[in-house]
Amino acid sequence: MQMIRHCIDQCWDVLQKVSDPEIPVLSVVDLGMIRGVELNEQQEIIVRLTPTYSGCPATDLLKAQIVEALAAEDLIPAKVIIDLSEAWTTDWMSDAGKQKLQAYGIAPPEGTAQQCGTHVHLRDGVVCPHCKSRKTRLLTEFSSTACKALYKCQDCLEPFDYFKCI
Q1: What positions does the domain MIP18 family-like occupy (predicted)?
Q2: Lowest CB count within 10 Å: 3, 48, 120, 133, which one?
Q3: In the chain, where are the structural domains located?
C-alpha cells in the first residue's frame, strides 16, 4: 500500500510540471484540471483530466504531454481519461496557481463560481496584477480568450487580462 501511495505521489509531482499550453506558468495541477490519479487492477496509472471546457482544442495535446511526462519518469503504463462528469470551474484552481497568474500579469478570478451565479461576474475594481490598485475599469468582456476579460488600471495605466470567475 505504501508503494502505491509513493507511486501516486510521484505522479502528482510530475503532473505539477505539465504546463497549460495557453498560460505556460500554470500547470494542469494549478488549474485543477487533474481530478484524480489512481492505480487500477492492471497496474496502469489512470489520470482523470477535466479540460477547462469540453471543446478545448488542447485536450489531445494535454493527454499526450501527461503520458509523455509520466513515461519520462518511468511511471508506466499510464492512461489519461477525460472526465466530463462535472464542468471545470475556477474554484478548482489552486491558490498557488492564482498567485502565479498574478505574477504573470493576469488578474486571477475573484470569488467563487457560486458567488458569480450562472454568468460571469464582471465589474470595475478588479485588482491590477501590476500595481495592486483596485482603481480599474472593464474595457471589454472578452480578451485574448473567452475566459478572460480586458481591464485597464487607472493608476498605472496598464491594460491587463482578468481570468473570469467561471
Answers
A1: 10-72
A2: 3
A3: 1-82, 93-163
Which residues have CB under 8 Å from 10's CB, separation 6+?
A: 73, 75
Q: What is the DSSP letter of 77?
A: S
Report the mean per-residue pLDDT for the chain.
92
Of 79, 104, 101, whose CA–CA distance to 164 is shortest?
101
pLDDT value at 111 more than 90? no
Residue 91 DSSP symbol: G
Main-chain phi, psi angles of 101, to 5 degrees: -60, -50
* CA distance linking residue 31 with residue 33, whole number of Å: 5
CA atoms within 13 A of residue 165's CA, in its CB half-sphere: 17
What pTM value is reported for the model? 0.89
Superfamily of domain 1-82: Fe-S cluster assembly (FSCA) (3.30.300.130)
